[in-house]
Amino acid sequence: MQKRSPFFAFVIVAVLPVVAVADEPTTVSYYKEIRPIFQQHCNGCHQPAKPLGGFVTTAHGDLFKAGERGKVGVVANKPIESYLIEQIKVHENGKAEMPKNRDPLNPIQIKLISDWIAQGAKDDTPASAKAVVVDAANPPKYVAPPVVTALSFSPNGKSLAVAGYHEVLVYNTATYALQSRLIGISERVQSVAYSPDGKKLAAVGGAPGRFGEVQIWNPETEKLLISAPVTFDTLYGLSWSPDGKAVAFGCADNTVRAIDSLTGKQILQMGTHSDWVLATTFAQDGLHLVSVGRDMSMKLTEVATQRFVDNVTSITPGALKGGLMAVDRRPMMDTKRTIRLFGAVVKMNAPKRMQKVPPDTPGVPPQVYDEVLSAGSDGIPRLYKMHREQKREIGDDANKIREYEKMPGRIATVAFSGDGTKFAAVSSLDGKGEVRVYDVTSGAKIVCEKVTGPVYAVAWQPAGKLIASAGFDGVVWLHDPSSGKLVNSFVVLPKTTATGAE
Question: Does pTM top 0.85 for this prediction?
Answer without folding.
Answer: no
